[in-house]
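G., the chain you wanted modeled:
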Amino acid sequence: MNIALTELKKGQKATITEVNIEEIPLKLLEMGCLPGNAVELLQIAPLGDPYYFNINDSHVAIRKETANEIQVTLEK
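Predicted structure as tokens:
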């Protein structure tokens, strides 16, 4: 079951399954935000934006509207 990256709870791990390339900055793709890579939600900013993720051992802050364009599958 695919969910948006913003639906993860703190500490949850998932695998990226789909990325809307037209809405994702090239820099995020270069940093490993690609299908098949592991992602973990580390923290959410106090006002709910941005989200702070660990994507393939890189720590990345992603705006909420961008994170909504990334689909993941939860790890069991």
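Residues 27 and 33 are 9 Å apart (CA to CA).

Shout if anything looks off.
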